[in-house]
Amino acid sequence: DTVQCDSAGLHRSRDPGAGAFTSYHNRVGVASENIPRGMELFLDYGKSYFDKPAYTMMPFREDFKAGDKVLHSFVGIRNNLLVQQETQSDLSSALPNVILGLIHEFKNIWSSRVLNTLPEDTNAVDELVDVGVKYMDYNRSIHSMDFLREHGTCMDHLRPGRSTIEQAGRGAFAKRRISEGEIISPVPLIHIPDREMFDMYRPENQPFPISDEDTREKNS
């Protein structure tokens, strides 16, 4: 199914309820592979969203493939050092950690997406060299059932639909009885300390706040 877009019969020229709800609906997601129980799902904004200076360290799909090649090269160097350890000093056993740490220092200098795919812990190298560096944070994205019971909220009691209330448009309908005091839906909010932040214009008799620096200049 594709995303649908309509205003549920409301028009901005005559209906005050128009714009109170999103025109986009019927968005669905289909699993392309098996998803483990308790795994967290993320929305992909697309490569162009992260192709900005603020996200220079965010790896792209091709960066994980390049990271696998770098990790395989590191493992080859490490294995050669471990072989030499029997005939040389204990310095050879410490070198893998030194080399991996040096790689991550380069990552900070070059802002490399590829180097940011590599693990910082040498103990994780052998596991990732077999499955790929893209699985470095795989286990962290899976939560236990105990964690979900404590922190999660089920959404199986709601369904979207078109309202029969005038000007309401579309909304959520209960699929089962919801008890008093039961959480209907989690609503993430952004805390706004001062509602005046939403003001586009101020009355003429209410000037904008004067900074402390302006006050000092006025009094001097």
Overall geometric form: elongated
- Tell me how many strands there are: 4
What's the order of the H and E elements?
A: EEHHHHHEEH
- The portion of residues assigned to helices is 25-40%
Query: How is the largest sheet built, in terms of strand order?
Result: 1-2
The average pLDDT score comes to 80
Distance between the termini: 68 Å
Which characteristics define this entry?
220 residues, mainly alpha, two-stranded antiparallel ribbon, 4 strands
Provide a brief overview of the structure:
The protein is mainly alpha-helical. 32% of the residues lie in helices and 6% in strands.
3D structure, described in words:
By secondary structure, the protein is mainly alpha-helical. 32% of the residues lie in helices and 6% in strands. The protein has 6 helices and 4 strands. The chain has helices at residues 47-50, 61-84, 91-110, 125-131, 145-151, 212-219; strands at 4-5, 24-25, 158-162, 170-174. Strands 1-2 form a two-stranded antiparallel sheet. A hairpin with a 7-residue loop joins β3 and β4. α2 (61-84) runs antiparallel to α3 and α2 crosses α4 (125-131). The chain starts with a strand and ends with a helix.
